Amino acid sequence: VQLVESGGGLVQPGGSLRLSCAASGFTFSSYVMNWYRQTPGKEREWVAAITSVGDSTNYADSVKGRFTISRDNYKNTVYLQMNSLKPADTAVYYCNPWGTDYWGQGTQVTVSS
Questions:
Q1: Counting CB atoms within 10 angstroms of each CB, which of 47, 72, 78, 85 has the fewest?
Q2: DSSP letter, residue 7
Q3: For residue 102, what pLDDT is reported?
Q4: Cα→Cα distances 96→10, 13, 38, Å
């Protein structure tokens, strides 16, 4: 199993980023996919989830209305569109197939002026 997150970077408050997670080594289209984030010294925080066929999504209250999760099962990729970013969104972001302990290396998102 391989999960490769990308798209992170440094952005000013109010800005946007689109994260991608390319998956391989498992049947991607069969899994609910999650995005999590983690800051140093804190537990990993669940951010968003999308069903296996992409017909339903769910979000943490802290990102609801600002973040959008989507997926492309032909490309085995899950995305996280992040708008109206805040300094509190600064973290390393990870994707994860639901119910597994599969994790990638993460992608760093830093929101700062």
A1: 72
A2: -
A3: 97
A4: 23, 26, 13
